[in-house]
Write a structure and sequence with these properties.
Blueprint lengths: L4 H11 L3 H6 L1 E5 L17 E3 L2 E7 L10 E2 L2 E2 L7 H5 L2 E6 L2 E6 L17 H28 L5 H10 L6
Antiparallel strand pairs: 1-3, 2-3, 4-5, 6-7
Length: 169
């Protein structure tokens, strides 16, 4: 699950953990040199410069590929989960001033897909507004970070995000 600056701040704040502990809850997916395309789930999130090269930040996964915060099929951080989790299985984009949406899951990944009550347009808009706002602010931050950091590091990045007023909890 990819994360934004807001997600990182919420995680740190609600768990009451330091920047170094927050860093240990995250994975940095560095793309191989040569400009390969990011994985499908990371295409809408900007890559951030680190000491190992451009990387995509996500919640750490355990050896079985499950989220580090999943226990007995329950999310331990459900109350303050990342935006990508809050909006799942929907994905949102803003194009030409209009919000578009789609599904990011297939039945094999999300067995609940297509069950339950239908989500209306108003509900989709309610979900999309904070997700798109947080993503926009994160893109702005990443652009500034990537332009201004001569010696970027993952630890400095997390410290900077946690102190940036745009992401205040």
């Amino acid at each position: 699950m990819t994360v934004t600056g807001h997600d990182i701040v919420r995680l740190s704040f609600f768990l009451g953990i330091s920047s170094s502990e927050t860093l240990r809850a995250l994975d940095f997916y560095v793309l191989p040199e040569g400009g390969s395309d990011p994985p499908v789930g990371m295409r809408d999130i900007p890559a951030v410069n680190t000491e190992n090269g451009p990387a995509y930040i996500a919640l750490r996964r355990m050896e079985n590929n499950e989220c580090i915060f999943l226990s007995d099929d329950l999310c331990m951080i459900h109350q303050f989960r990342p935006g990508v989790c809050r909006s799942f299985p929907f994905v949102f984009q803003e194009k030409g001033g209009e919000t578009t949406w789609g599904l990011s899951a297939v039945k094999e990944i999300c067995p609940g897909l297509g069950t339950g009550s239908e989500i209306g347009i108003d509900e989709l808009e309610d979900i999309s507004v904070p997700v798109l706002r947080e993503l926009s602010l994160y893109r702005e931050f990443v652009s500034e970070w990537n332009e201004n950091q001569d010696n970027p590091s993952a630890s400095l990045l997390i410290e900077t995000i946690l102190s940036d007023s745009r992401f205040a909890a």
